[in-house]
Design goal:
By secondary structure, the chain is of the alpha/beta class. The chain has twelve helices and seven strands.
């Protein structure tokens, strides 16, 4: 990206935004609200900062930044969201931490790495709603898993017989959560069906054996309907299924392995898809049988996950359903 005239780093929290401009050398703390955004306008006016010639850089926070991004969109301010870990690891040895310093460090990172940064498009309301519903569904599923484990533990440890108050309460909570999960899934399906592009890609993903509703929903949400990742490989790195070299000189010769810096939630869901694909997809089944002769099951499963990601991006790019035309060689 061509270097912007002004580089602005923003440290986001629930109630406040800490903003630092490199060129002006100035910092301001504002409320994360429309009142605070007006204060930002006054700040820019006071120090002759032209926001139309600026790039705003901030970290992903999982939701706190969305009001600010809507403001940036309304004012035609270019912005880039970055993983916090990328900024943290680029700083080298650091001492101390506060919101003002964090905003300055974000701005410095952007000023140094501007060639690697490209303005992003605002996330659509459908994608935001989809992420919120998926996050809520995940909490309900985890709660139910916890209730189930507690019930089993209590039955085993205390040999509970007859009606037990704690077990009865947990079972009731489980049933309530199951109804809420069903209702949430209906709402997710409604969000997908209401948008033609989301629904089209959802049907394309479902044509791949092994990819069920949850994997299709999550892939659409986290790729922002296949707009936030340039290709399948970059998404596979994000999910954590691409192995990397670990070697140096002649003394360190580690085997290739996947990085722990990944979206573990997506990877876990894709795990179930890979197992289903090995069971029901003839091509994946033949591949797994062939590779399992000399490779560990975990490595083979990881490779199948990568193949599924390649298929997902391929069907969306072509706009055609996946066709199973595999025929095993004699």
């Amino acid at each position: 990206m061509q270097k912007a005239q002004f580089t602005i780093g923003v440290d986001v929290s629930r109630n406040t935004l800490d903003i630092y401009c490199i060129e002006a050398g100035r910092h301001i703390t504002i409320a994360n609200s429309s009142i605070g955004f007006r204060s930002f306008q006054s700040f820019c006016h006071s120090y002759d900062i032209d926001v139309t010639q600026a790039i705003v850089v901030l970290e992903y926070t999982g939701g706190y930044e969305y009001k600010w991004l809507q403001y940036c969109q309304a004012k035609s301010i270019a912005f880039v969201r970055l993983p916090g870990l990328a900024i943290k690891r680029s700083l080298g040895i650091t001492r101390g931490k506060n919101d003002k310093v964090d905003a300055m460090r974000i701005a410095q990172y952007a000023d140094e790495k501007y060639k690697l940064l490209f303005p992003q498009k605002p996330v659509s309301k459908c994608i935001l709603q989809l992420k919120e519903l998926l996050s809520f569904r995940k909490k309900l599923v985890r709660e139910n898993a916890g209730y189930k484990a507690t019930i089993k533990e209590r039955q085993h440890m205390y040999e509970v017989k007859g009606r037990d108050f704690i077990i009865a309460t947990l079972i009731k909570k489980q049933k309530t959560n199951e109804k809420l999960i069903e209702k949430t899934e209906v709402m997710i399906a409604g969000v997908i069906a209401a948008d033609n592009s989301l629904y089209t890609n959802y049907l394309l993903l479902k044509s791949i054996k092994g990819i069920g509703n949850v994997n299709a929903w999550m892939t659409i949400a986290y790729t922002e309907n296949f707009t936030s990742f340039v290709n399948a490989r970059s998404y596979a790195v994000y999910v954590g299924v691409i192995p990397f070299d670990y070697s140096s000189g002649t003394s360190l010769r580690g085997r290739k392995k996947v990085s722990h810096v990944a979206n573990k939630e997506l990877k876990q869901e894709l795990n179930q898809a890979a197992k289903a694909a090995i069971q029901w997809d003839r091509e994946m089944q033949a591949y797994a049988e062939r590779k399992l002769k000399n490779k560990h099951y975990g490595i083979v499963l990881n490779n199948v996950k990568f193949k599924l990601i390649l298929r997902m991006f391929a069907v969306v790019k072509r706009g055609e359903n996946y066709v199973d035309n595999y025929s095993k060689a004699a």
